[in-house]
C-alpha cells in the first residue's frame, strides 16, 4: 500500500472545511424560494387552498402586482440575526427580490405561526395611501381568523383582500371600519409611513405580564421613519383586554441598509 502524500491530506482537509463552511452559511440563510407564489414552510395550508392562492396570485402578477405568501414556524429557526418579524420580512423581501426592481411594487405576506406574528410588506413603489389599507387587511381580514387558530382562512382572506385593493385604483381614503384605527388617523399617528413601505404592523395576542392571560395585544406605529443615514422611532403600545394593563413606549428603529442583490426591490 502506497503511503498517503501530505499534499493529498491537505487537499482533503481543505475540502472538508469547505463543506463545513458551506453548511454553516446554509444554516444562516433565509429559506430557499421553492415556489413562485406560495411557500408554506409551516405547513398550514391545504393543497386546495394552495392551488387557489397560486391562481389568485398568478392573476395579480399578470396585472402587475407580484405578491408572495410565506409561512414559517418561527424566526429563530433561521440563524439570520433577525430578532423581529419586521427585519426578517424586509430582508427576505430583498433577498428574494420580490417584485420588479424597476418599479419596486412587490408584496410579501409573511406569517410566523409559532411566534404568533404576521406582516404585510409593501415595496417602496407603492403609493403611501396603501400603507393604512394594508394595516386594515391585517386587522380585519387576517387577525380575526388567526385568533381562532384558523391560519388557513386568515391567509386566504388576507390575500384575497390585498389583491383586491392593490389591483384597484389608488385609495384616496383607506376603507377603515375599526374605530381604533380612526382614532389613530385623527391623531396623526400614521403620518409618514410610506417612506419605508409598510410602516404599521400588528402582532398577534400574547401573554400579559400582569394577569398572565393570552389577551395582550401589541401594535406599533412609525413616528419617524429610518433612513440610510439615521435611525427612526416607533411607538409600541401594549394593551390587555382582560385586566386593562396598558403600556406605551418609544423604540429606536435601526437605519436602513442597502440590499446585497442588484435585482432586489427595497421595501
Describe the structure.
This protein is α/β, with parallel strands linked by helices. It has six helices and eight strands; from the N terminus they run αβαβαββαααββββ. It has helices at residues 6-27, 47-62, 85-96, 129-147, 151-166, 179-186, and strands at residues 38-40, 66-72, 106-112, 117-122, 200-202, 216-224, 232-240, 246-253. Helix 2 packs parallel to helix 5. The chain starts with 5 loop residues before the first helix and ends in a 14-residue tail after the last strand.
Give the topology, please.
Layout: H1 6-27, E1 38-40, H2 47-62, E2 66-72, H3 85-96, E3 106-112, E4 117-122, H4 129-147, H5 151-166, H6 179-186, E5 200-202, E6 216-224, E7 232-240, E8 246-253
Parallel strand pairs: 1-2, 2-3
Antiparallel strand pairs: 3-4, 5-6, 6-7, 7-8
Under CATH, the topology of the domain at 32-173 can be stated as Diaminopimelate Epimerase, Chain A, domain 1
Gap between N and C termini, in Å?
62 Å
Helix-strand topology string: HEHEHEEHHHEEEE
Largest sheet: 4 strands, mixed
CATH architecture name of the domain at 32-173: Roll
Q: Determine the fraction of residues in helical runs and give it as a percent range.
A: 25-40%
Amino acid at each position: 500500500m502506497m503511503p498517503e502524500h501530505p499534499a493529498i491530506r491537505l487537499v482533503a482537509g481543505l475540502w472538508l472545511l469547505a463543506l463545513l463552511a458551506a453548511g454553516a452559511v446554509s444554516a444562516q440563510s433565509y429559506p430557499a424560494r421553492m415556489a413562485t407564489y406560495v411557500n408554506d414552510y409551516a405547513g398550514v395550508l391545504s393543497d386546495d387552498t394552495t392551488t387557489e392562492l397560486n391562481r389568485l396570485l398568478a392573476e395579480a402578477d399578470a396585472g402587475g402586482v407580484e405578491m408572495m405568501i410565506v409561512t414559517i414556524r418561527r424566526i429563530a429557526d433561521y440563524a439570520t440575526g433577525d430578532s423581529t418579524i419586521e427585519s426578517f420580512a424586509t430582508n427576505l423581501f430583498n433577498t428574494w427580490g420580490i417584485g420588479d426592481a424597476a418599479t419596486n411594487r412587490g408584496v410579501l405576506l409573511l406569517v410566523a405561526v409559532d411566534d404568533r406574528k404576521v406582516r404585510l410588506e409593501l415595496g417602496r413603489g407603492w403609493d403611501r395611501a396603501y400603507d393604512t389599507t394594508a394595516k386594515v387587511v391585517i386587522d380585519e381580514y387576517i387577525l380575526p381568523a388567526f385568533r381562532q387558530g384558523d391560519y388557513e382562512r386568515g391567509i386566504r382572506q388576507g390575500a384575497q383582500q390585498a389583491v383586491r385593493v392593490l389591483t384597484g385604483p389608488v385609495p384616496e381614503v383607506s376603507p377603515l371600519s375599526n374605530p381604533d384605527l380612526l382614532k389613530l388617523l385623527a391623531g396623526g399617528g400614521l403620518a409618514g409611513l410610506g417612506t419605508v413601505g409598510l410602516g404599521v404592523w400588528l402582532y398577534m395576542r400574547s401573554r400579559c405580564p400582569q394577569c398572565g392571560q393570552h389577551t395582550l395585544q401589541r401594535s406599533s406605529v412609525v413616528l419617524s421613519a429610518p433612513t440610510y443615514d439615521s435611525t427612526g422611532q416607533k411607538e409600541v403600545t401594549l394593551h390587555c383586554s382582560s385586566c386593562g394593563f396598558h403600556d406605551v413606549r418609544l423604540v429606536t428603529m435601526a437605519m436602513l441598509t442597502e440590499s446585497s442583490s442588484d435585482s432586489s426591490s427595497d421595501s
